[in-house]
Amino acid sequence: MAENFGKILLTGATGFVGGRLLHALTGHGMEVRCLVRSAEKLRKRLFPEEEVEIVTGDLLKPETLDKALDGIEVAYYMVHSMGGRTIGENKVFAERDRSAARHFVKAADRAGLARIVYLGGLGETGDNLSKHLASRQEVAQILSSGRAQITELRAPNIMGAGGAPFEMLRSLVERLPVMVCPRWIETRAQPIDIRDMVHYLIGCLREPATTGLSLDVGGPEILSYRDMMEIYARVRGLKRLIITVPVLTPRLSTYWVNLVTPVPSGIVNPLVEGLRNEVICRDNRIQELIPIELTTFEQSICNALQEVEKGPGKLMSRQSCFLK
Ligand SMILES: NC(=O)c1ccc[n+]([C@@H]2O[C@H](COP(=O)([O-])OP(=O)(O)OC[C@H]3O[C@@H](n4cnc5c(N)ncnc54)[C@H](OP(=O)(O)O)[C@@H]3O)[C@@H](O)[C@H]2O)c1
């Protein structure tokens, strides 16, 4: 498959979603060039049989981008700047993401890039949207302002070992027999399994009709965060008492989540702030364009727990990252 795309540029290959996508692309025999800040970090994550071209660069350093885009027709944009160690350090993520996207668009136009597949976030603009979700949408607009055609996949929480949504859920439910939770645990979302997400990302290449579209993607169930905690506890056979209180502000919630989870506060803060926004698909066009049988939330949790048993950052196999 896919030889006609030529070499594909992947940004964010050292990240949670980009890393899995990389294994899926190479598993399907595609030629991939990765733009990464640290070649060393990427090399450690490659499977022995995996061959990719690595170009060292930084989206915040525009002079490093021409080499990465040279001769490329299709690129995946899988980057965000959240993740500083402290809330203060992380305040500037939206500004960084704006600059990164602008630099990428300029370099893409210089290189004559034809197509960008961008993984953004669900959430309705104007609906008291969190800074994090608003930033994801701003990046989509910037990427659309260039000459390349963009496919935007708007995703909710992506569930898989090593990803922030699963790791936050896991630490909270594993460590706290009694959970005193803010009201946002009643907010609804439509979490999607990482394998299904990767399948959609690759499906966008195979299905030309996705070009130029902004498509919502989600899992098969709409669940509140309370439902997710309860399902996790049930899968693990843990008895948990969940009590909601009206007084926990996003900042206090962040401190509370930070106490029990290893996910850096720079990621926890914007994610927790975003939990007040429902992330539910507006439409299901993706299911007609790229039909797949979606994984239930419970099955996602079981899959992720199996990977956790292998050890931190260890995947079951390269094939386990994607559907056949
Ligand atoms: N995870 C989810 O549940 C979820 C849900 C919806 C949408 N998304 C979207 O999916 C995309 C990927 O998310 P993720 O969870 O995979 O994130 P992640 O694990 O935090 O990875 C982020 C990636 O971006 C790279 N990066 C950051 N700044 C960069 C820069 N200036 N130049 C080059 N690379 C840079 C990082 O490289 P380093 O390794 O060098 O830091 C890393 O590879 C994001 O757009 C995110 O908004 C994720």
Describe the protein's architecture and organization.
- The chain has 324 residues and is α/β, with parallel strands linked by helices.
- It has one domain (3-321): Rossmann fold, CATH 3.40.50.
- It has twelve helices and 13 strands.
- The chain has helices at residues 16-27, 39-45, 65-69, 93-111, 131-144, 164-175, 194-206, 225-236, 250-260, 265-274, 285-289, 297-310, and strands at residues 8-11, 32-36, 53-56, 74-77, 115-121, 149-155, 158-159, 178-181, 188-189, 192-193, 214-216, 223-224, 241-244.
- The strands form four sheets. It has a seven-stranded parallel β-sheet with strand order 3-2-1-4-5-6-11, with helices on both faces.
- The longest helix has 19 residues, at 93-111.
- The protein is globular and about 55 Å long.
- Bound molecules: NADP nicotinamide-adenine-dinucleotide phosphate.
Shape: globular
Give the SSE string: EHEHEHEHEHEEHEEEHEEHEHHHH
CATH architecture, by name, is 3-Layer(aba) Sandwich
Q: Estimate what percentage of residues fall within beta strands.
A: 15-25%
Main sheet: strands, sense, barrel: 7 strands, parallel
**What is the topology, as strand order, of the major beta sheet?**
3-2-1-4-5-6-11
Number of H- or I-type helical stretches: 12
C-alpha termini separation: 12 Å
CATH topology heading: Rossmann fold
- Count of distinct strands: 13
Question: From the helix content, strand content and strand pairing, which structural class follows?
Answer: alpha/beta
Mean pLDDT: 90
Bound molecules: NADP nicotinamide-adenine-dinucleotide phosphate
Number of domains: 1
Q: Which stretches are poorly predicted, pLDDT < 50 over at least 5 residues?
A: none
- Please bin the fraction of helical residues: 40-55%
Q: Looking at this structure, what is the CATH superfamily? A: NAD(P)-binding Rossmann-like Domain
Please identify the top-level CATH class.
Alpha Beta
- Rg over alpha carbons: 19 Å
